[in-house]
Specification:
The protein has about 270 residues and is mostly helical. It has one domain (about 60-270): MetI-like fold (Orthogonal Bundle). It contains 13 helices and no strands. It has helices at about 1-5, 15-35, 55-60, 65-95, 105-115, 120-130, 140-165, 165-175, 180-205, 210-215, 225-230, 235-260, 265-270. The radius of gyration is 23 Å and the shape is globular. Mean pLDDT is about 80; it is low at about 265-273.
């Protein structure tokens, strides 16, 4: 009983202060962006703000360049996520089901793009496109984003496959199901939530990616690149903050949904073992 109570000992005051400090460090800047999206001042930051208004939301709504950037970012994110769902799932299934020489090396190579700094990935892709004489376009951005989106889906799919009982597949095959039927009625239902979470995370990462996009976009302007260019214009800061609030919502909501979708599902997946 003593060891059990020790495991639930209350955190010390110093640890609580450190945790609160870490949370404030991470979230106060986001709160300031939200606050200054409503400020009446359009030139500089003042605290407290001289007044609050909704006018900048109306200004942002009327800006066609913002809508064009949002549309491009959304199309790139959706396409990259679709590619990642297919390739990441297939790669995860191959690594899980197959045993071959260099298996761990292949797994490392799949994960490597998200482990490397974005600037390295961006420079590498730009050099490859230049050598192949591929003009920069929508698809070069998609290929750049797919390199790290695949990793997110791959990790989720592989983790779920490792927690799913192999006897389910064997039972399906013993009952006369072919490979496609087993995939459709057994494998996919068991990994569906993992793929949903991986797809949401991939979409969020792609939507706000700026470093790799800078090297692969050419003259195109995604939403993060638009925001980066607008930061040098002081009078546009409130509009930029409004757009930043939108980006926070677009990236935050999928992450929260992915968390709640996958929470506790590892117990369900492992129940058959």
């Amino acid at each position: 009983m003593r060891s059990s109570s020790a495991g639930h000992a209350r955190a010390s005051l110093g640890l609580k202060i450190a945790a609160i400090g870490g949370l404030l460090f991470l979230h106060v800047p986001l709160a300031l962006i939200l606050l200054y999206a409503f400020t009446t001042e359009d030139k500089s930051y003042q605290f407290p703000p001289p007044g609050l208004t909704l006018q900048w939301f109306a200004v942002a709504w009327e800006r066609q360049d913002i809508w064009d950037a949002i549309g491009l970012s959304a199309r790139v994110a959706l396409t990259s996520t679709a590619i990642a769902l297919v390739l990441g799932t297939l790669a995860g299934a191959a690594i899980h089901r197959s045993r071959f020489f260099g298996r761990e090396t292949v797994s490392l190579l799949i994960i490597l793009p998200i482990a490397l700094p974005g600037i390295i990935t961006g420079i590498s892709l730009r050099s490859a496109f230049n050598l192949a004489e591929i003009p920069f376009s929508f698809w070069t951005i998609v290929l750049g984003h797919a390199t790290f989106c695949v990793v997110v889906v791959y990790n989720n799919a592989l983790a779920r496959l490792r927690r799913t009982s192999g006897s389910l597949v064997e039972a399906s095959m013993d009952l006369g199901a072919n490979g496609l039927q087993t995939l459709r009625y057994v494998v996919l239902p068991n990994i569906a939530t993992a793929l949903l979470a991986g797809g949401m995370l991939a979409f969020a990462l792609s939507f706000d990616e700026v470093i790799v996009t800078t090297f692969t976009a050419g003259q195109q302007t995604t939403l993060p690149i638009w925001m980066l260019s607008e930061l040098v214009r002081p009078r546009q800061r409130p509009v930029t903050n409004v757009v930043a609030v939108f980006v926070i919502a677009v990236t935050f909501i999928p992450i929260v949904v992915a968390y709640y979708v996958t929470r506790g599902t590892e117990h369900v997946a492992g129940a058959g073992k």
